[in-house]
Amino acid sequence: MAPHRTPDSSRRSDRSRRAIHDAALALVGEVGYARTTIEGIAARAGVGKQTIYRWWPSKAAVLMDAFLDLSARQAAEVDAAGADGDYGIPDTGDLEADLKLVLRATVDELNDPAAEAPTRALAAEGIIDPALGAQFVENLLDPQLQLYVTRLRAAQEAGEVRADVDPRVALELLIAPLTHRWLLRTLPLTHAYADAVVDHALRGLLVRP
């Protein structure tokens, strides 16, 4: 007789968590955050409602964890494909080209239906729930903003960007316009707009001849 194997509870838990993450992201994309419920996530994931409540206190917490997991998986796929960096900003020596490349990628990400709904939901819920908002900033927003700080400081060291520029303030000249247009949905968020934002921002940042 084959030896009896004890079920691997950790592997089962990982499968359940992944199923819950995928269900939360899918439901928010399909029906919106307001109509997404713990019961709906549980049914979609094929788990009991109490399983979710054992790991997370609310659907917002589930969505936050799901989004962090999705980001980690995407980064792992980039690494596995042998791509350079981990969503970092390239440093080719041409700041304008590098910023336009990454802002165009940001436009694509914000316009991606799979990411748009959960990102909007987390941003809105973070305003109501300060603890969730702080987690959103710490885990999702700040790491991305730090990439801009690093690239702009490198441009300062190369003598391309003015020495008196604060990179943390300067990055807002690039990010804030895209976020504003995306949040309000007043005008299309396009590559051409991203390029224009870079052009206007650099007029104030670069060392003038």
UniProtKB/TrEMBL annotation:
Among its keywords, does the record have Cytoplasm? no
Q: Where is the HTH tetR-type domain?
A: 14-74
What the entry lists under InterPro entries is as follows: Homeodomain-like_sf, HTH-type_TetR-like_transc_reg, HTH_TetR, Tet_transcr_reg_TetR-rel_C_sf, TetR_C
Q: Which Pfam families match?
A: TetR_C_11, TetR_N
Keywords (A to Z) from UniProt: DNA-binding, Transcription, Transcription regulation
- UniProt keyword DNA-binding present: yes
Output the SUPFAM superfamilies linked to this UniProt entry: Homeodomain-like (SSF46689), Tetracyclin repressor-like, C-terminal domain (SSF48498)
The record's annotation in PROSITE patterns points to:
HTH_TETR_2
Protein's name in the database: TetR/AcrR family transcriptional regulator
Species of the source: Streptomyces atroolivaceus
